[in-house]
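Q: What does the assembly look like in three dimensions?
Context provided by user:
Components: two
Sequences:
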Amino acid sequence: MRIKLTVNARDVSVEAPPTETLLTTLRERLQLTGTKEACVEGECGACTVLVNGLPVDSCIYATAAADGLSITTVEGLGGPDGSLSPLQQSFVDHFAIQCGFCTPGLLVTLSALLKANPNPDRGEIESAIAGNLCRCTGYTQIVEAVEAMNQETVS
Amino acid sequence: MTTEVGRSSIRSDGVTKTTGKAIFGTDVILPGMLHARLLRSTVPAGRIVALDLSRVAEFPGVHGVLTAADIPNQRSGLVLMDAPLFASEFVRFEGEPIAAVVAETRTIANQALALASLEIEEIPSVGSIEEAIAPNAPLVHPDWESFATPPGLDWPRSGNIVAETCSDPDGVDEAFAGATIVVEDQFEAGRQYQAYMEPRMAVAEFDGQRFTIHVAHQFPYNVRDRVAAAIGVHPSEIRVVGHHIGGGFGAKLDTGLEPYAALLARRFGRPVRLANDRSEDLLTCQCRDNAVIKIRTAIGQNGELLARDVDVLMDSGASATDIPFLASIPMHVFGSLYRIGPVRIRTRAVYTNTAPTGAFRGVNGTHLYFALERHMDHIANRLDIDRLEYRRSNLQPDGSKLPTGQVLDDAGILSEAFDAVEQLASWTELGQGPNRGVGIAACMWLTNPMPGSATLKLNSDGSLGVLTAATENGSGAIATGVRQIAAEEFGLPADKVVVTMPDTDAAAFDAGSQGSRTTHIVGRAVREAAIEVRAQILDTAANMLEAAPEDLELANEMVSVSGSPSKQVSLAEVAATAQASSGPISGTGSYTTPMPPINPTCASGLLFPGFPTPTYHVHVAEVEIDPTTGIVRVLRYLVAQEVGKAINPQAVRGQIQGGVAQGLGYALWETLQIDAGRYSQRTLEAYGLPLATDIPEVEIVLLEHPDPAGPYGAKGVAEPPIIPVAAAIGNAVEHAIGKSVDTIPITAERVLEALSGS
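A: Here is the predicted structure of the complete assembly.
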């Protein structure tokens, strides 16, 4: 079936079977490989993208269900000139990254959190990312990267 | 003057990993690439009665299939040649590959594979360690005697015992006979899945002469050598190219899917991608081995440790992998930390009809130190002495000897680690109040000594290139540590240093990201290379400045004449001048740690030949138990870690926080439940990894005793943080509830069971 999407502010049209997941469409048809496949059961959050601004696990989300909707992937978080978003920059500055495989999903999840709640406290940050598994960092430096943005916003 | 070493420089891969542009192994797409899937055994032990793949092969879009019948019947392995690529007559674990299919897309490959006609007659399986050593147990490998070992290397093995290591020094029985008390324990540990976020994968291509294999692997040179042995080609016919690694933790040190991808690429003439889905990754991963540890210690009238007797059983699964070497790790653990008389150790690794086990961060140390340090608590409790005080009064001083004969010149550092955790929080004030407890545990651990190299080139713009086959597994060892060391050598900012991704055609051998070795070994290799490069820089600059090389100083990207700072040239000018005159500036260095002397006859069996560059650590956990649910909550977690020199303090902190998090998962929640040889869990959700809401912020003190051989003093950092965690948690839980939970993980169910016991 023909499905129209807006991906990272660009209109695209794909021909895909109705069972195809958004993750497969993004990675294999649109070659947007920043979104990661790690569990394909909606458990780990590595494949998180925004659909009309809300985070979803693209591995269990049918592309057909996104027809006419707006998708944001990790590739769409920065500026059009390639500059990093403040959240991305804070991840780099505060050692929130190790292997980096969970990083795209975390950034997408947290960008949605920050839009809804620009100054989250530690508990709110931890709860927001409780659906994003990270095996490397033990999470603290990720949480600190978000907290540091609060302080920078306040100061 | 240092500018980069000791500074928390940001990662070189930070930007690409936040924009989604970093290419991981799973992101590699080659023109004309086909997709393969494996047909796997559905049972732990059985005889293949019928296998018909004709409908698979005829499925539209399928290029072909491959089975044991298509390749030489060749077994291979890390130390014992006991693992076939494809099962032929018998299957020996659930998930063992039986056939491969290659197709235009992964979807087609999956659809075709569903048409395979496979009939397996189940045979009696060996599902546990106990079953493996039971009298008249079925043999996992009835043909075990035929398995080849590397030339000149063999060890005691028999039937289901794949390796045995024994050390029986004089005086043990006499000490027990004269003991005032004997304390005896038995501990068990479950099987832990590395659960890296990127499932294992490989992409292979064959150009008619040579293979190129694209990997996200901790040890590319091992891929080259293991694939060559498995498919019967010369190592030089294989090039391994490394991409970003989505976590490994030891599970990406041995080969996995690479030999299949290589065979398929050669057979079908197109690049082939083979990647695990999560369930098959979990089913076939070389997990941390489950184990049973019996430990007895003879205690004298003043509480002194007279002698010890240890019996370890470890589950190797259906093949040996590196387990025969790891069977000697108890030799390095059970006589460490505390003054003790002779220690008898017997370790047996057994075959079972489960997936082969292998390396996981802090191999064996996690459950061996659990046994040692839980046992120390039990001894102190029996003697009615405070657990910390008992440890402190028995600490090994500098110059203590391990059962291997290795002398620990700096063992006294451990005493400082005990002091350091006390600075973070007072032992006597922690774990107070109802349902609360505090636990302490220490460990000594090695820095892996295996060889590495680096080639440096000074580019004509004054930037520096570092060519190495070492891998950045996420730790930051390459993205920060090695890069900062290289920058430091030439007074450069770290962002003017580019370290290559691994390529076995380009860079000399490197033993991979394992055993906390990369910063230590490759950092030292960089310093060796820098000697040569520095000499070339100074020779060229001396000509340019009309000065003697020994009168020159190199700092802040400039070479200047001592005492005449106005006489100076930039590194870029020096590099460009050299390139146009004597030739481009470059140099190579290599390093491997000399092994400490040991007594080679201290044990029978394969011996992991020493614990070089040892480091010393103390962890403290404060927990609270919910007596209704049995749930353990970690209130505070303290770490004092010896690092030699923290090249990048924030990266070191990330290793400690992340290692403790994995250790907490191991201690409290994670285990693959094995029921008659089959894992009960198939998914990450069922397995249950720690979440952001589960892990406290670890409070850390770094101790720095620079290693004269390490780059700027750096020792290994990444493994120790996971090692004492289960022990510290176990000790805290027992302190809180007054009952001992002797099995890892210390789940809520086990806590409730202990609470309801007598």
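Follow-up: The radius of gyration of chain B is 27 Å.
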